[in-house]
């Protein structure tokens, strides 16, 4: 399963807010074996949201959109998702009933709170108020981290891929000195390799088989100068 993550908010683009939602979602999706192909930040603009959602919906198995839900002037994510599918926003009776069960009457909420894309599947917000929605394979979640996490967990079983296994090896050599070994490694084993330099080079070896990942890691250990354990 291939997926894209779209985070919405001007505050992300100007650096006022750290994009922890994207990091968390990518981690959870990876745990479920889902390959995240794109992570994109878009402004609070209906046209930009619609354009990106439309493109990614055509390209990937699922799109997770987070942020910009609610009744305020800059909460336009539902408008953008609806536009991507050529749908209208309309009062969703299931969402309204769920909020009523939580003790919210129509007088307590702005009317737009329950306005969702026509024909969508609403998602209850167990940690907040603004409902989410599923439109075909696009999942729209709140931007408040506690609300986003709770809502994602309610649909997590709908995201399934091939689980992978990762082994890391810390090598005390320049990254440039490892290039030939990486080529040999990938020729000898069915793995993907990432290298992340810092004080040492962290070599990340990923495979669909735990045994294959460990065999490849041992191959690297035998041929490299390793960081000494303290």
UniProtKB/TrEMBL annotation:
Transmembrane segments: none annotated. PANTHER family: NICOTINAMIDE-NUCLEOTIDE AMIDOHYDROLASE PNCC, NMN AMIDOHYDROLASE-LIKE PROTEIN YFAY. This is Competence/damage-inducible protein A. It comes from Halorubrum rutilum. Residues 4-162 form the MoaB/Mog domain. Signal peptide: none annotated.
């Amino acid at each position: 399963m291939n997926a894209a993550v779209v985070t919405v908010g001007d505050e992300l683009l100007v650096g006022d807010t750290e994009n922890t939602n994207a990091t968390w979602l990518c981690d959870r999706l990876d745990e479920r074996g889902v390959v995240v192909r794109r992570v994109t930040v878009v402004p609070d603009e209906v046209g930009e949201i619609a354009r990106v959602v439309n493109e990614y919906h055509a390209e990937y198995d699922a799109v997770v959109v987070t942020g910009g839900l609610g009744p305020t002037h800059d909460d336009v994510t539902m408008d953008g998702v609806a536009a991507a599918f050529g749908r209208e926003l309309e009062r969703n009776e299931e969402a309204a009933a769920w909020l009523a069960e939580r003790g919210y009457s129509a007088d307590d909420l702005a009317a737009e709170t329950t306005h969702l894309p026509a024909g969508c599947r609403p998602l209850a917000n167990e940690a907040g108020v603004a409902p989410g929605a599923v439109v075909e394979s696009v999942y729209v979640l709140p931007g408040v981290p506690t609300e986003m996490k709770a809502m994602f967990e309610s649909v997590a079983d709908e995201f399934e891929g091939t689980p992978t296994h990762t082994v890391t090896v810390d090598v005390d050599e320049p990254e440039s000195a490892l290039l030939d070994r990486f080529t040999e490694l990938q020729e000898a084993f069915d793995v993907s390799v990432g290298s992340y330099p810092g004080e040492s080079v962290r070599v990340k070896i990923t495979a669909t088989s735990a045994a294959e990942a460990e065999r490849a890691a041992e191959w690297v250990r035998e041929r490299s100068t390793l960081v000494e354990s303290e």
